[in-house]
Amino acid sequence: AQKVTQAQTEISVVEKEDVTLDCVYETRDTTYYLFWYKQPPSGELVFLIRRNSFDEQNEISGRYSWNFQKSTSSFNFTITASQVVDSAVYFCALSPRRNTGFQKLVFGTGTRLLVSP
Amino acid sequence: NAGVTQTPKFRILKIGQSMTLQCTQDMNHNYMYWYRQDPGMGLKLIYYSVGAGITDKGEVPNGYNVSRSTTEDFPLRLELAAPSQTSVYFCASTDSRQPYNEQFFGPGTRLTVL
Predict the structure, then answer these.
(1) Chain B partners of A104 at a C-beta cutoff of 8 Å?
(2) Do A4 and B42 lie within an 8 Å CB cutoff?
(3) d(CA A110, CA A8)
(4) Quick one: which H or E segment has residue B104?
(5) Cβ of B100 and A52 within 8 Å?
(6) Chain B contacts of A33, Cβ < 8 Å?
(7) pLDDT tens string for chain B (114 positions)?
(8) What is the dihedral of CA B42, B47, B50, B54, to 10 degrees?
(9) Measured between alpha carbons, how far is A6 from A23 in angstroms, rounded to an integer?
């Protein structure tokens, strides 16, 4: 069975602070994919990143960075110098790799980030 | 490219009524999905389809039905609506040639059953 845990329900920061959103996952699969999606107040889901289980390199994209650690089954997301526009709910998700090639996402419950000016 | 579109955006149903949530994508994606998102929760998979004529149950299929007669359309049918089906419904699609890339989501349908 697959499970994704985002223990932080809500985080409040002041603009320009750095913030890390935690994601811990459980899976028995050796090959899997991890994702982060952003859900702004408007409600749509925006893809941020995908990581496969064989690639443990950290990734940086502008103010966003991701730390994948297989040893602790974690895929944490850091926003540097947060901005008000970063206010959203962030979801971590997991998909095992299957021979069918079909993606079955299991989502965490999300972390609501509030960035105040 | 409109991407994934969903109609309606909002709907209020009475208990026992039925309705169909529409989902269309114009990206020629074979894989399509229906999710529901309850308040404070992540998305849960209701049904999915790997191509026209092929559908299968996800994690929470009870109370719903789907069909897939074309690549573009994947409607979700609610029969005998119940308050437990109050939720936000998202349709999504992926390209079967790159199945583990991002899912493209529609804007969602907010459904209230009273």
Answers:
(1) 45, 48, 58
(2) yes
(3) 8
(4) strand B104-105
(5) yes
(6) 100
(7) 789 999 999 999 999 999 999 999 999 999 999 999 998 888 999 999 999 999 999 999 999 999 999 999 999 999 899 999 999 999 999 988 877 778 999 999 999 999
(8) 180
(9) 5
